[in-house]
């Protein structure tokens, strides 16, 4: 990641921030001021909660009033899609090959 860092040594206009960091920022790394969580983890949590709740409700309804076997298909499709969406948004962008 290429960033430019400048240091303000002029004391005449002190605003409380002496270091100005500029560069490329990704939406994945911006933080929420209230909780300090990254946006992607908040979105991931929302997808997980909605995917689990909606899949569970659909499985329950299809088991009760749907044709035989439809609850099992909904279980596979609903939870599988939720896991795929979480992998696609949270795990796929991570570069595990870089060294620190």
From TrEMBL:
Taxonomic superkingdom: Archaea
Annotated spans, Disordered: 1-35
Keywords: Membrane, Transmembrane, Transmembrane helix
Record-annotated membrane-spanning stretches: 40-61, 73-91
Biased composition (Acidic residues): 1-13, 21-31
Name recorded for this polypeptide: Uncharacterized protein
Natural source organism: Halocatena marina
């Amino acid at each position: 990641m290429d960033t430019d860092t400048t240091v303000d040594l002029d004391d005449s206009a002190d605003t409380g921030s002496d270091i100005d960091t500029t560069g490329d920022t990704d939406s994945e790394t911006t933080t929420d001021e209230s909780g300090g969580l990254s946006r992607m983890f908040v979105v991931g949590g929302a997808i997980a909660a909605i995917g689990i709740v909606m899949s569970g409700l659909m499985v329950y309804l299809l088991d009760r009033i749907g044709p035989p076997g439809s609850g099992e298909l909904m279980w596979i499709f609903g939870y599988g899609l939720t896991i795929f969406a979480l992998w696609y948004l949270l795990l796929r962008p991570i570069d595990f090959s870089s060294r620190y």
